[in-house]
């Protein structure tokens, strides 16, 4: 199965991505992003296992491009992937094609199209059979709309927060 973009309505309301959207929408207040200062992990214990938090940083190779680093990899994600991505650069453990597809999703989210939702299988060798639903949510640590954090909620299709 390739990546299929879906609508929020296609995700069960108790799935972690749908549950997090309810917070995100309220916190966004009509913006295409949420100020990072509005997020408190203590308010989202049922979501945290399914979180990949990516932070933007300058690309070490230069050229004015950016790269994304996993600053948080929830326990549920670690179980799904078979390892933790925490501290690693985005793309680690993925094929270049899968990383490019997801970077295109990130760019759309940063460009104001987000949050975005997807139905796919994991792009990890020996884990391609695992079907997940995920949402990508943009955040701005400066609170100005400069998106420098992406909150990705990824969980099996049957995961629930209730």
Question: What would your notes on this structure say?
Answer:
It contains 3 helices and 7 strands. It has 162 residues and is an alpha+beta fold. Strands 1, 2, 3, 4, 5, 6 and 7 form a 7-stranded mixed beta sheet that branches. Strand 3 and strand 4 form a beta hairpin. The longest helix is centred in the middle third of the chain and has 18 residues. It is globular, with a radius of gyration of 15 Å. The two termini are 28 Å apart.
Give the N-terminus to C-terminus distance in angstroms: 28 Å
Largest beta-sheet details: 7 strands, mixed
Structural class of the secondary elements?
Answer: alpha+beta
Rg, please?
15 Å
Count of DSSP H/I helices: 3
Number of DSSP strand runs = 7
Q: Output mean pLDDT.
A: 92
Element order: H for helix, E for strand: EHEEEHHEEE
Question: What percent of residues adopt helix (DSSP H or I)?
Answer: 10-25%
Strand and helix map with partners:
Elements: E1 4-6, H1 16-28, E2 34-35, E3 51-58, E4 66-73, H2 75-81, H3 96-113, E5 116-121, E6 131-140, E7 149-156
Parallel strand pairs: 2-6
Antiparallel strand pairs: 1-5, 3-4, 3-7, 5-6, 6-7
Feature tags:
seven-stranded mixed sheet; alpha+beta; 162 residues
Provide a quick synopsis of the model.
This protein has three helices and seven strands. The protein has helices at about 15-30, 75-80, 95-115; strands spanning about 5, 35, 50-60, 65-75, 115-120, 130-140, 150-155. Strands 1, 2, 3, 4, 5, 6 and 7 form a seven-stranded mixed sheet that branches.
């Amino acid at each position: 199965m390739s990546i299929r973009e879906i609508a929020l309505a296609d995700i069960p309301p108790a799935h972690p991505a749908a549950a997090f959207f309810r917070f995100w929408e309220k916190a966004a207040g009509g913006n295409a992003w949420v100020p990072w200062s509005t997020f408190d992990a203590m308010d989202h214990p049922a979501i945290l296992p399914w979180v990949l938090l990516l932070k933007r940083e300058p690309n070490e190779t230069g050229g004015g491009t950016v790269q994304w680093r996993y600053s948080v990899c929830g326990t549920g994600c670690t179980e799904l992937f078979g390892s933790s991505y925490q501290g690693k650069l985005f793309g680690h453990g993925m094929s270049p094609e899968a990383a490019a597809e997801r970077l295109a999703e990130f760019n759309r989210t940063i460009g104001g199209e987000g949050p975005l939702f997807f139905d796919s299988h994991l792009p990890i060798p020996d884990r391609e059979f695992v079907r997940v639903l995920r949402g990508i949510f943009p955040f701005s640590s400066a609170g100005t709309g400069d998106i420098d954090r992406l909150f990705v909620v990824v969980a099996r299709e049957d995961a629930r927060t209730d």
